[in-house]
Design brief:
The protein is of the alpha+beta class and about 280 residues long. It has eight helices and 14 strands. The strands form three sheets. It has a seven-stranded mixed beta sheet, sandwiched between helices. Strands 11-10-12-14-13 form a five-stranded mixed beta sheet, with helices on both faces. It has a two-stranded antiparallel sheet with strand order 1-2. It is globular.
Length: about 280
C-alpha cells in the first residue's frame, strides 16, 4: 500500500505521504500481531454497556499501540478512539481540527469467537472532511485504503469500484443490527428484514460495520444499512464508498451525518432511492 499512500495529499502541511504510509503500515502490522497472538489462546473479556458489548485485553492493547504511534508522529493532532486509552477522547463530537478516528478492533464479538471478520479501522479528518481511511483484516490479510479525491484501493494496490447495481431485486444487502436490542430496535430490525427478504437477492449480517461498508466499496455487496453505528465504526469506510463511486446517505435520504448513528451506503443513487421508502426507521439515542 505504500506506493499508493505516497500520493497522499500535501494540502495539509503537517502530513507527509511517505511518513503516513510507513507509520500506518507499521502500526497495522504490529496491531495484527497482537490480535493474532490473542486468537491462539482462550480470551478473557469484560462487558461495557451490556452483555453483548464486549471488551478484550487486545482491544485496549491495539488502541494503546495506535494512539502512541500516532501521537509520536503527530503530537498536535486530535485523536478519537473507541476505548479511550492513553487519555484520548471517547467523545463522538468531531471538530475542524486535524483528527484521527480509531476503532482498534471492529467486530470484537467475531474476534472473541475466532470468526475471521474483524478489523482495525483508522481514519484521518481535517475540517470535518475525511482525508484518508485504512481498514485491515489481520486474519484474512486484506487491506482497504482510500484517499480523498484519489480513489479506493483494495489488497495489492488494486483500484476498486462499487458494483453500480441499480436494481433492488438483483442486490445483495448487508445489514448490521444495533447492539441495543431493546424492543424498538428489535421490532424495526425484524420489520425491515421481512420487507427486504422477499425482494432482494440476499441479506447478510457479518458482524463488523467497518468491513461491511468496505464491501460496498469493493462491489462485494450492493447496499449496507445500519441503525446505531458509532463514529469510529464508520469514519474510514464512508470515504471508501464515496471514492469507489458509491453513495452514503442518512437512511431517511438526507445528507449523511458521521455522528448520527444512522447509515445507508449503496452502490448507486438509484438503489438508495428504492431502499429509502421501504425502510422502517429508528433514531438511536
Amino acid at each position: 500500500m505504500c506506493k499508493f499512500m505516497r500520493t497522499f495529499s500535501r494540502q495539509f502541511s503537517t502530513l507527509d505521504g511517505a511518513t503516513v504510509c510507513q507509520l500506518i503500515s507499521r502500526l497495522s502490522q504490529e496491531s495484527s500481531k497482537i490480535m493474532l497472538k490473542a486468537l491462539n489462546k482462550r480470551m478473557e473479556y469484560t462487558t461495557k454497556k451490556h452483555s453483548r458489548d464486549i471488551l478484550t485485553k487486545a482491544d485496549k492493547a491495539v488502541e494503546r499501540l495506535l494512539v502512541s504511534g500516532i501521537r509520536k508522529e503527530f503530537p498536535e493532532h486530535q485523536i478519537i478512539a473507541e476505548e479511550g486509552t492513553e487519555g484520548v477522547s471517547k467523545s463522538k463530537h468531531l471538530t475542524a481540527a486535524p483528527t484521527w478516528i480509531i476503532d482498534p478492533i471492529d467486530g470484537t464479538m467475531n474476534f472473541l469467537h475466532g470468526f475471521p471478520y474483524f478489523c482495525t479501522s483508522i481514519a484521518f479528518y481535517a475540517e470535518k472532511q475525511a482525508q484518508f481511511g485504512w481498514i485491515h483484516n489481520p486474519l484474512l490479510r486484506q487491506t482497504y485504503v482510500a484517499q480523498r479525491g484519489k480513489g479506493f484501493f483494495f489488497f495489492n494496490d488494486q483500484r476498486m469500484q462499487a458494483s453500480k447495481q441499480r436494481d433492488l431485486k438483483k442486490s445483495l444487502i448487508f445489514v448490521e443490527w444495533s447492539l441495543k436490542r431493546n424492543e424498538d430496535h428489535v421490532n424495526v430490525a425484524m420489520d425491515n428484514m421481512l420487507k427486504l427478504l422477499p425482494i432482494v437477492h440476499g441479506i447478510r449480517s457479518l458482524g463488523s460495520t467497518a468491513l461491511n461498508i468496505a464491501q460496498v466499496a469493493t462491489g462485494a455487496c450492493d447496499a449496507y444499512i445500519q441503525f446505531g453505528p458509532q463514529i469510529w465504526d464508520t469514519a474510514a469506510g464512508v470515504l471508501m464508498v464515496r471514492e469507489a463511486g458509491g453513495v452514503v446517505l442518512d437512511p431517511c435520504g438526507g445528507e449523511y451525518d458521521l455522528q448520527s448513528q444512522r447509515l445507508l451506503a449503496t452502490s448507486t443513487a438509484e438503489l438508495a432511492e428504492q431502499l429509502i421508502p421501504m425502510l422502517t426507521q429508528v433514531f438511536p439515542d
